[in-house]
Amino acid sequence: MWRAAGLTDLGFVRSSNQDAFALEDALHLWVIADGMGGHAGGEVASRLAVDAVIAHARSRAGTGAAAPSSAERLLQDAMAAAQRAILDEARARTGLAGMGTTCVALRISAAPESFATIAHVGDSRAYRLRGDRLEQLTQDHSIVDDYVRRGLITPAQAFTHPLRHVLSRALGSENASDADVGTHDLEDSDLIMLCTDGLTKMVEDDRIGDLLRQERGAPDQACQALVQEALSRGGADNVTVIVCTRRV
Predict the structure, then answer these.
(1) How far apart are CA 124 and CA 50, in angstroms?
(2) I need a labelling partner for 133 at 20 to 30 A (CA). Which of 28, 42, 172, 189 fits?
(3) Three-class DSSP labels, the chain
(4) Across-strand partners of 42?
């Protein structure tokens, strides 16, 4: 069995928290979204996305979505449901036109072997800590990340690039393509972290890894340490973190 803790904070600059998250240990499913589109729009889009992903997973509970291919299809369909929910709400309420959100969802299956299936759109991320190595499991859908992949800038330059907040894909965009979905093996001692860019735009991966290693067996404390680190560096955005570990 795997368990997770989550924590969100407004930060010191934003007037509202447009992040949303859900911990669904019983479904083996955890979700984070980071909304955009003005005060109301961002909050609505992120909550719609999280709720739609969870609702779809609940509707499929007990249907045998345990194999990697089945888990990937479940999350792909759940993200599609989130996309429809946001577009429908934006069309129904003119004041919400243009709203959107990132989303990253984790589903863990543990029989006969543990594996993590992750779907994401935007720049909310998933990481795996294995031993002393922290590995980013998702690839940002952003202009700056595309620059890095093309060799135009370095990862260090991307961390402070003026366009680092500009997304190339988000739920709610009329031309949004499917979510990226992948499956990763898990060992009993692994830790999975989901987060919004309120963490990764403020704290380097090396420091994130240090804090996760220090609190490896305590998801609640790991979340608190990560959020506090982002706040100590200025808290320029809402910050949300989920840390998932195997129950002992």
Answers:
(1) 13
(2) 28
(3) CEEEEEEEECCCCCCCCCEEEEEEHHHCEEEEEEEECHHHHHHHHHHHHHHHHHHHHHHCCCCCCCCHHHHHHHHHHHHHHHHHHHHHHHHHCHHHCCCEEEEEEEEEECCCCCEEEEEEECCCEEEEEECCEEEECCCCCEHHHHHHHCCCCCHHHHHCCCCCCCECCCECCCCCCCCEEEEEECCCCCEEEEECHHHHCCCCHHHHHHHHHHCCCCHHHHHHHHHHHHHHCCCCCCEEEEEEEECC
(4) none
pLDDT digits (tens, 9 = 90+) for 34-89: 999 776 799 999 999 999 999 999 998 876 556 778 999 999 999 999 999 999 99
CB neighbours of residue 237 within 10 Å: 24
Alpha-carbon distance values, 21 to 64, 113, 186 (Å): 25, 27, 23
Rg (CA), the chain: 17
Spatial CA neighbour of 79 closest among 62, 110, 96, 55: 55
CB atoms inside a 10 Å sphere around CB 10:
17
| Residues listed for the chain | 248
157 φ/ψ angles, rounded to the nearest 5 degrees:
-70, -35
